[in-house]
From TrEMBL:
Xref: InterPro entries: Pectin_lyas_fold, Pectin_lyase_fold/virulence, RHGA/B-epi-like_pectate_lyase, SHCBP-like_N, SHCBP1-like
PANTHER family: PROTEIN NESSUN DORMA, SHC SH2-DOMAIN BINDING PROTEIN 1-RELATED
Boundaries of every Rhamnogalacturonase A/B/Epimerase-like pectate lyase domain copy: 350-522
Gene3D superfamilies the record matches: Single-stranded right-handed beta-helix, Pectin lyase-like
Pfam families, alphabetized: Pect-lyase_RHGA_epim, SHCBP_N
Gene name in the database record: SHCBB
Protein name from the UniProt record: SHC SH2 domain-binding protein 1-B
Top-level lineage group: Eukaryota
GO BP term, pick one: male meiosis cytokinesis
SUPFAM superfamilies reported in the protein's UniProt record: Pectin lyase-like
Native source species: Ceratitis capitata (Mediterranean fruit fly)
Residue ranges of every copy of the SHC SH2 domain listed in the record: 56-274
Length: 570
């Protein structure tokens, strides 16, 4: 385990021309299963389908509890608990957080288990030893202390339960009329809908829209359950005095939003209605040259959109004059009202240039491969030196959707000269694949939530930050399995954890700083340790310690630091 707490010190990685860090460890293996549509349908039908018997929504949970009781081990098996985001927020711990332990008892009726925590990845995390957790949040490990237990069957059963309650069961199903046969009405159509999303039989824009709605609905349901649980715990006689108007208003807002999502999702479950919805909501590209339906690759590359905020004529002229230096002379340029309009309706574009001001977008996952969003400003100021990130002179991009992600990329993209206002979202940028480059950009979080992340770089993806600042997040940058991070002349400021490394992740640092990280500047949790463990690890607080370590390992122009060499547990 390599933990590098920074505190109030400046951690300057510019001690050599380039620092290259490759982090490796052996992860704890869990059971995972790959199943096709027919397998999933057959599994759920086995649990819920009885001859000539109507299964209403209120009975579905009971049927699963009967099945679970016959299939899984009642106690003693070890597992990883992947703590849900809503619980991480309640416990004030970072997200994602994974802990290791064993099941003391399975509560079959509630589809829950009493879980005893044995080890954590972060020595700074202190949680109660015993928790009541949902079975679908548990991942049985392949290595068990008791080899007599049939853990593979247990894991397979939990996998079936997890798939059902993650992809098939909807938050509003508990409110369904018991006169309806839930299985006949929803089971097959929901499973097919899930696999349609996976196979991408829909437009990319619609797929992203549906996933966003489903993710939001799950989170809202968890929030609703927590609020309702708090209301029922209050003494009925003092209810009006103890329950604030804010809580009641929040609960009403959640019910209203869930009802809106329900209407839309139930419409989209029908393939024919989905096709019509897709044509209306996400039409084909609107911006085409007159009398020309197909554009050559060369012309696509030179295609430019200007998003101009309301301003005086002279201001618009000055902005266009400034943009001339960056736009090719033969480029096809078109002005549009909003950034959202271009991203929603244009499937092909070269670059989008934004005027100063605030540009609001909804959750997006349909970013064009090789595209670029660039801010234009008359003042040639460096954003990272600005005292006011949200001043009207800056180019600000924010989200109109709370509890979502500002941008999701699954291909190469460039962001330049913009401030990403991430204060009301769960994550700023999620990179699923490809290489995303940020130049002279600022990402700003709210500095309060324990689960908010600035940049998440998924497996095999890459992110490059040049002259950038990432500030006020719970975790500034998460570098996942086999992902690659480049930091060039960039700063990570005022985050709880500056950079979070995962298995086989790689990082390049050049003249970059991590400042005022309150927990760890760089976190690389490789092993699970007991919460009360007094084991110490390599702690590097000062630049000289890195210099000494570099000399000790004979690292020259490129320093390669491996976790095994830095391990110092005693």
């Amino acid at each position: 385990t390599v933990l590098i707490p920074i505190g109030n010190a400046v951690f300057n990685l510019n001690f050599c021309k380039t620092l290259y860090i490759e982090f490796k460890f052996c992860a704890m293996e869990v059971y995972e299963f790959e199943k096709c549509l027919l397998d999933r349908l057959e599994e759920s039908m086995t649990v819920l389908s009885w001859k000539d018997e109507v299964i209403p929504a209120s009975q579905v949970r009971s049927e699963w509890s009967y099945y679970i009781e016959l299939q899984i081990e009642p106690a003693g098996w070890q597992a990883l608990w992947k703590i849900p985001r809503i619980i991480c927020e309640e416990l004030c711990v970072r997200y994602p957080t994974v802990v290791f332990g064993y099941v003391e008892q399975v509560i079959f009726k509630n589809l829950k288990a009493v879980f005893i925590i044995q080890a954590v990845q972060d020595v700074d995390i202190h949680l109660p030893e015993k928790h009541e957790v949902s079975l679908e949040d548990l991942w049985p490990t392949r290595d068990q202390e008791n080899p007599e237990l049939n853990v593979e069957r247990t894991a397979d059963c939990i996998d079936r339960l997890r798939f059902f309650y993650t992809h098939v069961w909807m938050p509003w199903d508990n409110d369904n009329d018991d006169d309806l046969n839930w299985v006949e009405k929803h089971l097959e159509s929901r499973i097919r809908f899930c696999y349609d999303l996976r196979k991408r039989t829909m437009k990319k824009t619609l797929t992203a829209h549906v996933r966003k709605l489903l993710t939001e609905s799950k989170y809202l349901q968890q929030r609703r359950e927590y609020l309702e649980l708090g209301l029922t715990d209050e003494d009925e006689g003092d209810l009006e005095e103890t329950v604030s108007k804010t809580e009641i208003t929040d609960l009403m807002r959640l019910h209203l939003r869930l009802a809106m999502i329900r209407n839309e999702i139930e419409l989209l479950e029908n393939p024919e209605m989905r096709r019509i919805f897709q044509e209306i909501k996400f039409p084909d590209e609107d911006y085409k040259q007159e009398n020309q339906n197909v554009m050559t690759v060369e012309k696509v590359c030179d295609r430019i959109f200007l998003v101009m905020m309301p301003s005086t004529l002279q201001q618009q002229i000055d902005l266009i004059e400034t943009a001339k230096d960056s736009i090719p002379k033969n480029a096809l340029v078109q002005t549009v009202k909003t950034l959202q309009e271009v991203l929603n309706t244009c499937n092909i574009y070269g670059s989008i240039y934004l005027s100063p001001g605030r540009h609001t977008v909804k959750f997006l996952e349909n970013m064009v491969d090789g595209g670029k969003i660039c801010g234009i400003s008359i003042k040639k100021q460096t954003l990272s030196n600005s005292s006011d990130y949200f001043s009207k002179e800056n180019i600000i991009i924010s989200s109109s959707d709370d509890e979502s992600t500002l941008f999701v990329f699954d291909s190469s993209f460039v962001l330049e000269n913009v401030v990403l206002d991430c204060r009301n979202v769960q994550a700023g940028i999620l990179i699923k694949s490809g290489t995303v480059c940020l130049r002279n950009c600022i990402l700003v979080g709210n500095g309060k939530a324990s689960t908010q992340q600035g940049i998440i770089c998924n497996k095999a993806a890459s992110v490059i930050l040049e002259e950038c600042t990432v500030e006020r997040f719970a975790t500034g940058i998460s570098v996942m399995n086999e992902a690659l991070l480049h930091l060039r002349n960039s700063n990570v400021l005022n985050c709880k954890i500056g950079i979070d490394w995962s298995n086989n992740s790689k990082s390049h640092f050049n003249n970059s700083k991590i400042i005022n990280a309150t927990i760890n500047g760089i976190r690389a949790a490789a092993v699970f340790k007991h919460q009360n463990s007094k084991s110490k690890c390599t702690i590097l607080n000062h630049l000289q310690e890195w210099e000494d370590l570099k000399q000790f390992h004979h690292l020259r122009e490129i320093a390669i630091l491996k976790a095994a060499k830095l391990m110092c547990l005693f």
